[in-house]
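In response to reviewer comment 3 from the previous cycle, which asked for concrete evidence that the modeling workflow produces usable outputs, we include below a single protein chain processed end to end. The sequence was submitted unchanged, and the resulting structure tokens are shown without manual editing.
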Amino acid sequence: SALCGTIFEATKLPLTRWFLAMHLLTQAKNNVSALELKRHLGVCYKSAWLMKHKLMEVMRLREDSRVLDGRVEIDDAYLGGEFSGGSPEFFMRCSTCSTAARSAPSSVTA
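The workflow returned the following structure tokens.
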């Protein structure tokens, strides 16, 4: 079977749901929670959480070996606001991009 040796090997969910989860996780500007995935996919919370973590692990493993070289550009953004108690809560998101002189980016990480 084409699914052997993949994260889809023992799934009972249709592949269309997995592909929709991949789309939602990779195209969202902010983090997608398992609860949000649950709503979009029409699955239980446990399934949404497991799908998210399996997909995130696969993405992490694929990017582990990638090394930026040449000219590296970094962009950051501070996101957040205030809790009801008035204490500020911010986190930084950083994106890096490796480019060769006068060419398109060769890789982007966030």
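The mean pLDDT is 79. We consider this sufficient to address the reviewer's concern, and the full set will be provided in the supplementary archive.
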